[in-house]
């Protein structure tokens, strides 16, 4: 019995130690890359003309972190306005929030307002992600982590600016989920990704204004398409 207790104790210590290591490792690779304050986020959004181009009144009160897993097991986070390599943004990101007093549910929507080109945004916005029923995690190790309890409505579509393009803005917005959202039929997994209008959608589903957001810039690389995505021919 004694023996078992001692072993159990040792086991607990090891698990706690691993948890701490995980937190430290997580912070080393992501903390310095994240938004530090709401005013930094607001400034970056203004500098990149996002509120006017998305028709949003952007007064966030939580910080949203978007974290991309990499094939080698590392994580990449970013502060608003940072440029990432296209290959770093291929896999669906996970999300964290800081400063929220509610646990959820939240809706997350990501859009590209610069398609096909920042100079000619005539097929914008492209909807790159729409997911709902996000809640703050019950995991004490990482309580700011958001966990979804239902499938995404639009799965993550990785950035694909054409080869001749300047970097596009990829904007992530966090909303308090409304009751009306649960029964919305405006967007489903088969809906076209192009010609989306996030402010019109948010008004129609009573999401209100975003309570958080962030954005990254992504330009083309050698694997990028030459020809622009054509919503009439290329399906979704
Ligand atoms: C993991 O991959 C990323 C790019 O996706 C790279 O920046 C980073 O240096 C790599 N890290 C290790 C430890 O290999
Ligand atoms: C968008 O602009 C491109 C390039 O100018 C043009 O080829 C295309 O027909 C336009 N598409 C629409 C839907 O207006
Ligand atoms: C949460 O969303 C991801 C995709 O964004 C999906 O793969 C996963 O199945 C979802 N989880 C649940 C419980 O539906
Ligand atoms: C999106 O919808 C809003 C509200 O209906 C409208 O004012 C705005 O012009 C639309 N934006 C685009 C790019 O069509």
How would you describe what is shown here?
By secondary structure, the chain is of the alpha+beta class. It has two domains: 32 residues; 185 residues, PEBP-like (Phosphatidylethanolamine-binding Protein, Alpha-Beta Complex). It contains five helices and nine strands. Strands 3-9-8-5-6-7 form a six-stranded mixed sheet, with no helix packed on it. Strand 1 and strand 2 form a beta hairpin. It is globular, with a radius of gyration of 20 Å. The termini are far apart. The mean pLDDT is 89. One 2-acetamido-2-deoxy-beta-D-glucopyranose binds next to loops.
Overall form: globular
Please work out how many helical segments DSSP would assign: 5
Number of E-type strands: 9
Largest sheet: 6 strands, mixed
Spatial arrangement of strands, main beta sheet: 3-9-8-5-6-7
CATH topology of the largest domain: Phosphatidylethanolamine-binding Protein
**Which structural class fits the helix and strand makeup?**
alpha+beta
End-to-end separation: 62 Å
CATH architecture of the largest domain: Alpha-Beta Complex
Distinct ligands: 2-acetamido-2-deoxy-beta-D-glucopyranose
Helix-strand string: HHHEEEEEEEEHHE
Question: Which parts are unreliable, with pLDDT below 50 for 5 consecutive residues or more?
Answer: none
What's the CATH class label of the largest domain?
Alpha Beta
Helical amount: 10-25%
Number of structurally distinct domains: 2
Rg is 20 Å
CATH superfamily membership of the largest domain: PEBP-like
InterPro entries: PEBP (IPR008914), PEBP-like_sf (IPR036610), PEBP_euk (IPR035810)
Protein name: OV-16 antigen
Organism: Agrocybe pediades
Signal peptide: 1-33
């Amino acid at each position: 019995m004694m023996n078992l207790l001692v072993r159990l104790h040792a086991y607990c210590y090891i698990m706690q130690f691993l948890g701490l290591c995980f937190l430290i490792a997580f912070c080393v690779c992501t903390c310095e890359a994240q938004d530090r304050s709401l005013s930094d986020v607001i400034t970056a959004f203004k500098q990149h003309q996002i509120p006017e181009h998305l028709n949003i009144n952007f007064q966030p009160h939580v910080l949203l972190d978007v974290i991309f897993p990499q094939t080698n097991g590392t994580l990449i986070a970013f502060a608003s306005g940072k440029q990432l390599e296209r290959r770093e943004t291929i896999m669906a990101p996970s999300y964290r929030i800081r400063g929220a007093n509610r646990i959820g549910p939240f809706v997350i929507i990501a859009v590209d307002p610069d398609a096909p080109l920042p100079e000619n945004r005539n097929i914008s916005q492209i909807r790159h992600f729409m997911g709902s029923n996000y809640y703050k995690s019950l995991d004490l190790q990482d309580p700011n982590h958001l966990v979804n309890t239902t499938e995404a409505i639009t799965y993550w579509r990785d950035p694909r600016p054409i080869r001749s393009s300047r970097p596009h803005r990829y904007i992530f917005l966090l909303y308090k989920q409304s009751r009306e959202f649960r029964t919305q039929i405006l967007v489903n997994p088969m809906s076209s990704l192009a010609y989306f209008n996030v402010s019109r959608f948010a008004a129609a589903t009573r999401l209100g204004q975003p309570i958080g957001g962030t954005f990254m810039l992504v330009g083309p690389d050698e694997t990028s398409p030459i020809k622009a995505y054509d919503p009439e021919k290329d399906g979704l």
